[in-house]
């Protein structure tokens, strides 16, 4: 009796349908429940056909490329995992460990760190699958033309729109347009944060303009040039407190439109730009998001216009209309300034596996 009960329990647990035993279904095949079997009738359990079911091929697991950062730009180190935390980029295996060089799919080489005699470049021969990335964010005016680099690289990383990896903070399209932008409180008219005034870096043009400009309007100056040093924590709040901000580039080149413009845009201040022609700015920013110095015959006319806007709230507000459908995000400051370029390279290397050569980089860059 005990044995019978045990067997009953066993049957209940193993074959609740009381069907004749059948071979186990092939893996992946849907297991159908059998109909209860009636005596004198053939079992209704489907007899699995021995046809091999196609095993669905899993999506190809591409290995993440290894991207080696050869130099830390300006020695500004950061946790390479920040690509994930800050930009949600984790498409490569990013490392600064030079011992993985023979396996690296790409090597990022920061131009300003390259020795004039090229002695600190990665060793030769280069693994045949490996791509070298020319990593450079300065304008041509501030670029040392180190001989021997012309035909070494596979990819360019630059602010230039036509670089292989083009890096800048783009305006983003708003998902839910409509909510009105609140202009922050202003207690200053025009501000400028500037440290570099070395004419050797191309700053002559902007400084000359500035000197003429301040004859006609008050400018609150911050940074090394003024002796009023600004802490990074105060960068955005200071810019936000000014109606206008001088986004003057140090030198004038195509596409050389830097975070000097992104800063005021991201906090709600109207940028006054000096740099490439207005048309070039309009490749990246709506025409009514900024005031261009070239829109005026001279510095005095610009000053007069700003003073007029200061008294005409409605006209000033027009410079905020684009914010109904676009938004500017703050950029990372100082020691984090290379995080975005490096993470962008990681993303690009993963999605571009094709063969590539960057010929004559200087011909391209200085054109
Ligand atoms: C990254 O590459 C290194 C060197 O080949 C390897 O040891 C490590 O496991 C890789 N990490 C990932 C997450 O793929
Ligand atoms: C990278 O560029 C070098 C130099 O131009 C070239 O010799 C090499 O074949 C390129 N390699 C790849 C993987 O694109």
TrEMBL record:
It comes from the Eukaryota. Pathway: Glycolipid biosynthesis; Protein modification; protein glycosylation. Homodimer. Its EC number is 2.4.1.-. Residues 1-16 form the signal peptide. It is a single-pass type II membrane protein. Pfam families: Glyco_tran_10_N (PF17039), Glyco_transf_10 (PF00852). One of its GO terms (molecular function) is 4-galactosyl-N-acetylglucosaminide 3-alpha-L-fucosyltransferase activity. It is an enzyme of class 2 (transferase). Belongs to the glycosyltransferase 10 family. This is Fucosyltransferase. Keywords: Disulfide bond, Glycoprotein, Glycosyltransferase, Golgi apparatus, Lipid metabolism, Membrane, Signal, Signal-anchor, Transferase, Transmembrane, Transmembrane helix. InterPro entries: Glyco_tran_10_C (IPR055270), Glyco_tran_10_N (IPR031481), Glyco_trans_10 (IPR001503), GT10-like_C_sf (IPR038577). Residues 63-169 form the Fucosyltransferase N-terminal domain. It catalyses: an alpha-L-Fuc-(1->2)-beta-D-Gal-(1->4)-beta-D-GlcNAc derivative + GDP-beta-L-fucose = an alpha-L-Fuc-(1->2)-beta-D-Gal-(1->4)-[alpha-L-Fuc-(1->3)]-beta-D-GlcNAc derivative + GDP + H(+); alpha-N-glycoloylneuraminosyl-(2->3)-beta-D-galactosyl-(1->4)-N-acetyl-beta-D-glucosaminyl-(1->3)-beta-D-galactosyl-(1->4)-N-acetyl-beta-D-glucosaminyl-(1->3)-beta-D-galactosyl-(1->4)-beta-D-glucosyl-(1<->1')-ceramide + GDP-beta-L-fucose = alpha-N-glycoloylneuraminosyl-(2->3)-beta-D-galactosyl-(1->4)-N-acetyl-beta-D-glucosaminyl-(1->3)-beta-D-galactosyl-(1->4)-[alpha-L-fucosyl-(1->3)]-N-acetyl-beta-D-glucosaminyl-(1->3)-beta-D-galactosyl-(1->4)-beta-D-glucosyl-(1<->1')-ceramide + GDP + H(+); an N-acetyl-alpha-neuraminyl-(2->3)-beta-D-galactosyl-(1->4)-N-acetyl-beta-D-glucosaminyl derivative + GDP-beta-L-fucose = an alpha-Neu5Ac-(2->3)-beta-D-Gal-(1->4)-[alpha-L-Fuc-(1->3)]-beta-D-GlcNAc derivative + GDP + H(+); an alpha-Neu5Ac-(2->3)-beta-D-Gal-(1->4)-beta-D-GlcNAc-(1->3)-beta-D-Gal-(1->4)-beta-D-GlcNAc derivative + GDP-beta-L-fucose = an alpha-Neu5Ac-(2->3)-beta-D-Gal-(1->4)-beta-D-GlcNAc-(1->3)-beta-D-Gal-(1->4)-[alpha-L-Fuc-(1->3)]-beta-D-GlcNAc derivative + GDP + H(+). Residues 184-364 form the Fucosyltransferase C-terminal domain. Its main location: Golgi. It is found in: Golgi apparatus, Golgi stack membrane; Golgi apparatus, trans-Golgi network membrane. Transmembrane segments: none annotated. GO terms for biological process: lipid metabolic process. One of its GO terms (cellular component) is Golgi cisterna membrane.
């Amino acid at each position: 009796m005990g044995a019978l009960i045990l067997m009953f329990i066993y049957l209940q647990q193993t074959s609740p349908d009381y069907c004749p035993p059948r071979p186990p279904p092939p893996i992946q095949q849907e297991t159908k429940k059998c109909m209860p079997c009636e005596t004198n009738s053939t079992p209704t359990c489907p007899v699995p056909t021995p046809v091999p079911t196609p095993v669905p091929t899993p999506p190809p697991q591409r290995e993440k490329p290894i991207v080696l950062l050869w130099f830390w730009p300006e020695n500004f180190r950061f946790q390479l995992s920040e690509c994930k935390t800050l930009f949600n980029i984790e498409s490569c295996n990013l490392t600064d460990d030079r011992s993985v060089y023979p396996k690296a799919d790409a090597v990022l080489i920061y131009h300003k760190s390259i020795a004039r005699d090229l002695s600190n470049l990665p060793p030769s021969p280069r693994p045949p699958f490996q791509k070298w990335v020319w990593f450079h964010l300065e304008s041509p005016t501030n670029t040392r033309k180190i001989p021997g680099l012309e035909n070494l690289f596979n990819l360019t990383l630059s602010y230039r729109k036509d670089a292989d990896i083009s890096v800048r903070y783009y305006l983003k399209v708003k998902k839910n347009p409509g909510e009105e932008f609140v202009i922050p409180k202003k207690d200053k008219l025009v501000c400028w944060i500037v440290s570099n005034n070395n004419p050797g870096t191309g700053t002559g043009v902007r400084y000359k303009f500035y000197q003429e400009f301040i004859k006609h309007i008050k400018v609150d100056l911050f940074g090394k040039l003024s002796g009023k040093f600004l802490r990074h924590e105060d960068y955005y709040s200071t810019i936000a407190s000014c109606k206008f901000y001088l986004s003057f580039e140090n030198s004038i080149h195509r596409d050389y439109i830097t975070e000097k413009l992104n800063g005021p845009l991201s906090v709600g201040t109207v940028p006054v730009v000096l740099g490439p022609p207005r048309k070039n700015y309009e490749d990246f920013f709506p025409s009514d998001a900024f005031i261009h110095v070239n829109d005026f015959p001279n510095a005095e006319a610009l000053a007069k216009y700003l003073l007029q806007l200061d008294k005409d709230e409605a006209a000033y507000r027009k410079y905020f209309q684009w914010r109904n459908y676009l938004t500017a995000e703050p950029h990372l400051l100082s020691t984090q300034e290379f995080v975005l370029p490096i993470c962008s390279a990681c993303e690009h290397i993963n999605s571009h596996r094709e063969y590539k050569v960057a010929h004559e980089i200087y011909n391209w860059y200085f054109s």
